[in-house]
Design goal:
GO terms for molecular function: lyase activity. By secondary structure, the protein is α+β, with helices and mostly antiparallel strands. It has helices at 24-35, 97-110; strands spanning 38-39, 44-45, 53-59, 66-72, 89-93, 118-120, 126-132, 138-144. β3 (53-59) and β4 form a beta hairpin.
Length: 146
């Protein structure tokens, strides 16, 4: 007889982020330039839409970051808009505010528009740097402050 679990099972962390993009090769290039990711050499079928979609997986060999960029034949090409149902943004953690400053410098080198670093005290102390990918998906780099 199987016993039903009485406690919530553990989560080991986020495995990957998978946005649908309008131009998969342009997005592959952008995410590789910004995050230094490596392309897995084979495309992955899109679960449930194997005949009309696929993903290109990018990974960071120095962390657990993985991004699966998805192409769908039915995508009409409208940009992401966080005011609609779906993804609002992705926030990636960095070690501290000085790391955010280094990211701001890196984005400047790449010519990628970004916000200034915003420091917040409520509801807890943090700093954030915001920018967008080619499909207007908001990305945040987020540092907890002591």
């Amino acid at each position: 007889m199987n016993q039903r679990t009485t406690q919530r099972p553990k989560i080991g962390g986020v495995h990957h982020f998978s946005p649908t993009v309008t131009d998969i090769e342009a997005s592959v290039d952008w995410y590789q330039r910004v995050f230094g990711l490596e392309r897995v050499p084979v495309p992955f079928p899109h679960h449930g839409s194997e005949e009309s979609g696929y993903a290109i997986l990018l990974t960071d060999p120095n962390s657990s970051l993985a991004i699966g960029l998805h192409h769908h034949d039915a995508n009409t090409g409208e940009p992401c808009d966080e005011s609609r149902t779906g993804l609002d943004h992705l926030a990636l953690s960095v070690s501290d505010r000085s790391e955010l400053a280094a990211w701001a410098d890196w984005l400047d080198v790449l010519g990628i528009h970004h916000s200034s670093i915003t420091d917040m005290d409520e509801p807890f102390a943090y700093s954030v740097l915001v920018f967008r990918d080619p499909d207007n998906i908001q990305l945040e780099l987020f540092a907890m402050n002591q």
